[in-house]
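Shape is hard to put into words, and the shape of a protein is harder than most. The fold becomes a row of whole numbers, each drawn from a learned catalogue of backbone shapes. The outcome of that step, for a single protein, is printed below.
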Amino acid sequence: MSKYKEPAKDLLKHIGGSNNISVVTHCATRMRFVLNDPEKADIDKIEEIQLVKGTFTQGGQFQVIIGNEVSSFYNDFIKMAGVSDTSKEEAKVAAKQNMNVLQRMISHLADIFTPLIPALVVGGLILGFRNVIGDIKLLEGGTKTLVEVSQFWSGVHAFLWLIGEAIFHFLPVGITWAVARKMGASQILGIVLGITLVSPQLLNAYGVAGATEIPFWDFGFAKIEMIGYQAQVIPAILAGLVFSFLELKLRKVVPNAISMIVVPFLSLVPTVLLAHIVLGPIGWQIGSWVSDIVYSGLTSAFGWLFAAVFGFVYAPLVITGLHHMTNAIDLQLMSELGGTNLWPMIALSNIAQGSAVLAMIFINRKDEEEKQVSIPAAISCYLGVTEPAMFGINLKYGFPFLAAMIGSLVAAVISVGSNVMANSIGVGGIPGILSIQPKYMTVFALAMVVAIVIPFVLTIIFAKTNTGKISFKKSRSIKA
């Protein structure tokens, strides 16, 4: 008999039975349910199941944290429940019935940027490594870099830029592809659209100010400047949305006999034209405003206050799903400033949550059953995956979550107060230091120590003094 039979039976019973399940799927650590009646799910009973590490509702989906065993558990569960295997995309579509307008907007934004994150993480690590070997003077009495004294490392430095350039300069290609994929338009045409924004024949937008002459397309009655939108986020999003809208509308009105010819042409060509005449300039301006506002806020006299608020509330934002909006801001800051001072605070918040769990491991060191949940949760949190730690431990007890928020606040103030910048989005935990620009690595390491020590100490103090023992039962089931 499978070891998952009894837990699966209990979960099915307490979630309201098969008739209450509209859609079920799973990700790396969680079962994801779209329920016909969310009120029928008995959260307290579900969380008493030994295999379950926590529950929460996000994006219209009721999610049950299982851990690394979720794939095997899922297979047994769907057999017992009598429901069919369902894709994540089908689950997302079904979940929208439980989402309001703001939640749908955030969900769309997340669907655009989530597929890009692996590339951005790799790119951040590569840029960080290039900076270490190319900018930090480690050799010959602190006068030369590795690149300056070694032909091998000089070659590595030059070679890695091939990947870094592909990820960041040509980012609009990934964005237009992701938008087309999300909207259900032709993905290959989305890629083509992105390439028309970053083509080598276009003048790099960042070189316009220093250019003696800007090339242009001459149509006789009008001229269009040949300016690219390398590394730009908003122009690519706008172009992708317009293209997808045109294609989807044309599919409905153009006869099938000629749609293969007419639809791609009438959707792609006008979009490319609009992108270079209207969408690009407008998107560039909007992006500049966003990055200027955020950067000005973080570097102003009240930057410490912004950092304190962001550091304190970021973890609760993860519960609601609003944290997905930071991806677009990070990418815009990277394109405008060559780095982001927002992302380091996110990495510090994740570290703080892991440190609170570490304290709970110490407190419950004699509880073998608790350690089976908390040790993997702490490890994954330090590597940037926070859900098992937050929902399986910290929100369950309440006071570790509060301790982590306070530690994140202090660490964020140190980071912003020292003007710490990351090359890009990276691994959102301890390895995130590799994405930090070299001259800020030392102070970021200090902020990391703070994000480890304060939550650890506060969690132990709260546990001993019975302080901060707040019930988060309701907050975990808030629909987000």
The domain at 5-98 is CATH 3.30.1360.60 (Gyrase A; domain 2). The first helix runs from residue 5 to 14.
